[in-house]
Sequence to fold (192 residues):
Amino acid sequence: MTDNAFARFINNATLWRILFACFAAFVMLAPIIAMQFTGEVKWGPEDFIFAAIILAFVGAVMETILRASGQLAYRAAGGIALATIFVTIWANAAVGIIGNEDNPANILFAIPLAAAMIGALVARFRARGLAQAMQVTAVMQVAIFIAALVFWGAFIPVVTAIWTVAWLTSAWLFGKVARADDAAATGQDRQA
Fold:
């Protein structure tokens, strides 16, 4: 498979839809199967409803990302941001990031998520605005680390580092797309 054929394969929107459907099925089926073998997993109807809502949200945003641009860098940036949002929500709801899931400090992690989502809407899913939104989100992630340390004595450097790098990687990729779009527009202006 040549590099170009591989890039087309990995950028195929249908492939990503199928992979997401498999992931969603796994997320919904894994606890059902686990509950048959262990008492450690105890999901009630509310847990399945919560999972379905989160997966529907992720699926809707993923579809928006796939339709917004056919560029691999744009889709990768969106995928990284979306995966970070999903993991943050899932980890916070399941076990909590600061202490356990009942610790009120965990609500702080909604701030960067809100920044990312509001930024995406304000930018209308355009690459330049998304790059800026992801940069702001990374700064907010670090601010959460500082607030958690100062106010709750929670030292969460690994989580902060992983999520901050994810936000910044997404910002870099969106910036790359924005620069490519600018270069293409400048080339078209010269030809006109």
